[in-house]
Each structure stands twice: as structure tokens, then as C-alpha cells.
Amino acid sequence: MDDRFFVHREEYPITAGDFSAAGDASARIKYVLRKLGIDSALVRRAAIAAYESEINMVIHSAGGTLTLTVDRDTIRLLARDRGPGIPDIDLAMQEGYSTATEAIRELGFGAGMGLPNMRRCSDRFTIRSSPGGTVIDMEFTIGKESG
Amino acid sequence: MEREVFFACGSDLMSDVLAYVGQQTLLLTGLTNAQVLRTAEMTDVSAIVFVRGKKPGEELRSMARALGIALMSTGLTMYEACGTLYMQGLPGRMPGHG
Fold first, then answer.
1. What percent of chain B is predicted at pLDDT more than 70?
2. Residue B38 counted as domain residue
3. Structural domain count of chain B
4. Which candidate, A83, A80, A99, places its Cα nearest to that of A91?
5. What are the structural domains, with CATH classification, of chain A?
6. Residue B95: inside a domain, yes or no?
7. What backbone phi and psi angles, to 5 degrees, belong to A36?
8. Which of A138, B5, B13, B73 has a CA that sits 20 to 30 A from residue B27's CA?
9. What pLDDT digit, counting tens, does each position of A98-128 carry?
């Protein structure tokens, strides 16, 4: 089969406040990436970034989607939510800054490490936000780990 | 179930675990919610010790079986459990050091 134009794409809905389902999409993403035969260290980086973005959407947003696209060279994770947006992105990108409630912290999250960790795990990271929603676009280069 | 680990990390903050844990690491925690298992799954943590006598419920146990993650429990506090393992030669790993 000519796989030059091979693209794998899946989209997962993320429900606001549903902590019991948080991680289901990321677990599926990790499974798919493994099945595609992608290097385990890269799968791990992408899975952590996916999970951080999923948790963030569950905690902070009105819900959204997480989209996985894989072609020969790149894994792309696109997290899009329906608001309320991040007023100060520079502040939100600082390690330790968090607006999470005490209840969220008791569950083990809200330490203000999510966005910085997504940026650290990905090879390319962009974020834009408005009251209508936040879009986080992350790319991971396939073949970097082994080469 | 047999799992080999070279490092350990003790934390009740899954945010920190996601940011700092490397592969083949043992996780010690006092949290017993499903997100502990999800965090372990994403970071390739293969074994978890629940401290302070915490016991995981059936939901967590069946999830761990499905994921191939070993679960253990100790009555020791986090400090004592980490100290005991550290004294036996199981190191931690600082971020950015391999």
C-alpha cells in the first residue's frame, strides 16, 4: 500500500466537570499511537500532553474536543474548548500559577503545571484564547527519538 | 506480577507526577482515585504503592489489572515509606536529569 498520504484522524468530545471520564480520550490516543507503531518515548510524551489538556478542559472549560491527527512525520493534538477562555496566557503559562479550586487540588490536580508541561512535552506548542474558547495546538515530530 | 523499577516518586499531586516522573518509576501516593491510575498509565508508571494504609477500591483494582499496573499498600506514612525505599538504594530522579 502506498502510505505517502496516510493520515489517521480521531476526534474525542470532552465533557466539562466529568472527572470520572477524564483520561478516557488520552487513553484511547495512547492506544492508537502504540498501534501505529510509534516510538514508546514519543507515545509517552504525546499521551502526557493529551492527558494534561483533557484534564484542563474538564476542570476549567465548558467542554470541548481533543483531535488527534497522525501522518508520516507528525502527531498533532488539537484541544479546542467552548470557553470561558484564559484572561492572561503569560500568567497561565507560569509554573505554579493556578485558578483551580480546593476540591480539584484534593483530587491531585491544579498545581499550575498543566500548560508548562504541555509545552515541555511537545515539539511545537501554540495557544490562543478568547472568552469564546481556548485552542491549544501541539505537534510532535515522529522519528526524533530514534534519530 | 513482576515489575522492575529504577526510580521512585512520592506525591499526592498528580500534576507533579505528570511533570517530573520518568519511565520505570515506582509511584508512592496517598490518593486512591481513578486519576492516579490514569496518570500512571500516561507516564508508563508500572507499580504504585498506596501509603498511610490506603486501600484501592475494586474499580481501581480492576483498572490496574487491565493496564498491567501492580498495586501495593503500606501502613507507613509517605515520609517513612519513601525513606525506607531510599535507604534500600531506590533513588528519585530530578527533572532534567535523564
1. 95
2. yes
3. 1
4. A99
5. 8-141 (3.30.565.10)
6. no
7. -80, -5
8. A138
9. 999 999 999 999 999 999 999 999 999 999 9
